[in-house]
Amino acid sequence: MNDCSEKILAGERITREKAETLVSMPLAQLGSLAHRCRERITRDAYGGRGSEIVTYIVDRNINYTNICTTQCRFCAFHRGLDEGYVLTPETLDAKMDELAAEGGAQVLLQGGHHPTLGLDFYVGILERMRARHPQINIHGFSPPEIWHFAKLFNMSPRDVLARLREAGLGSMPGGGAEILVDAVRAQIAPRKCTSDQWLEVMRLVHEAGMTSSATMMFGHVETWHDRIEHLDRLRTLQDETRGFTAFICWPFQPRNTRIDLPAAASPVEYLRMQAVARIYLDNFPNIQASWVTQGPQIGQVALAYGANDFGSVMMEENVVSAAGTAFQVTRMEIERLIREAGYEPRRRTTDYRLLFSCDAD
Fold first, then answer.
1. CATH number for the segment(s) 16-349
2. How far apart are CA 7 and CA 21, in angstroms?
3. What is the three-class DSSP state of 6?
4. pLDDT value for 124
């Protein structure tokens, strides 16, 4: 056993340099180390039984508009003003009603960087959702959207967040992180906020008493060194705020995009990336398996590579599917997959509180 493995098994924090040595480690050995980290971190999360539980949430993605001025090279979803859409209040109501009927705990609300919609539009969406379904948490927007709003409305990001929170925003997803290295962002998303700006919004979110997730989209123009830098910046902010609830990574999907790759990163590459993240992000309580891009079976395997959460039923998904990936599973299928992997499935809230025991059927 090498020095790095001994540190990991002892629960000690590893450096960026040590993390880069994990890249060449045999996959099975790396997965075993990540699983040990997962067990240690989750053991006491739910009354001493955390290591036996795999959580998931019932939610819905609502993309209020696909009109976007950033035109990121990796995105197959965005459209211009002449061919895009903005959802009507009545359509939003219908989508939220369907989510409530399924017992949904969360709505993930995100959209493109629309060049003309005013602050009242976004405040109105939140107030309408909160009034109609106060039991559903609004997990909404993203750091790039907040910077877009701040510039468009001539406000500070702090003031934008305060107004949105007052209107009903409950928490923030980790969208728009891609890779938190500006040299990479300049190649794939030059019109989006910088790495520092993304992190600053998340700091403000946490200071306001809200939680957020953190993400990584990998497998395009970045290197492993860039990936580790991304993880390190997340870990550093988490040391400061403790506001991140979970980390989710997924491979870039190249179909219908402007990044010329023959195929997405392989499932092996995905499992390696997730395992390294679980080991390095020692202050993140949860790692979410990305079955949306990898398929439910690989999502199931990911539970042996550091993941302790199976994500969401996701009644609707538009962005990833625009790039040619469209896996979907039901609540019962998620519970079956979790049980087959040897764990107890439990539905959760956005902040990872358990709701109730799942049925055994």
1. 3.20.20.70
2. 13
3. helix
4. 96
Helix 89-101 crosses helix 119-132 at what angle (to 10 degrees)?
A: 30
Element (H, E) at 139: strand 137-140
- Residue 342 burial (C-beta neighbours within 10 Å; 0-12, 13-18, 19+): exposed
Model pLDDT, residue 217: 93
pLDDT value of residue 356? 72
What residue type is 119 in one-letter code?
L
Which residues in the chain show pLDDT less than 50? 317, 319-324, 360-361
Q: What is the pLDDT of residue 91?
A: 94
SS3 per residue for 274-342: HHHHHHHCCCCCCEECCHHHHCHHHHHHHHHCCCCEEEECCCCCCCCHHHCCCCCCCHHHHHHHHHHCC
pLDDT tens profile 71-110: 766 666 657 677 789 999 999 999 999 999 999 999 999 9
- And the tokens for 237? 């902010």
The torsion angles phi and psi of 190, rounded to 5 degrees, stand at -65, -20
Cα–Cα distance list, 306 to 38, 169, 172, 177, 259 (Å)? 5, 30, 23, 21, 30
* CB burial of residue 82 (10 Å; 0-12, 13-18, 19+): exposed
Q: Are 126 and 140 in contact (CB under 8 A)?
A: yes
3-state SS assignment for residue 271? helix
| Averaged pLDDT score across all residues of the chain | 89
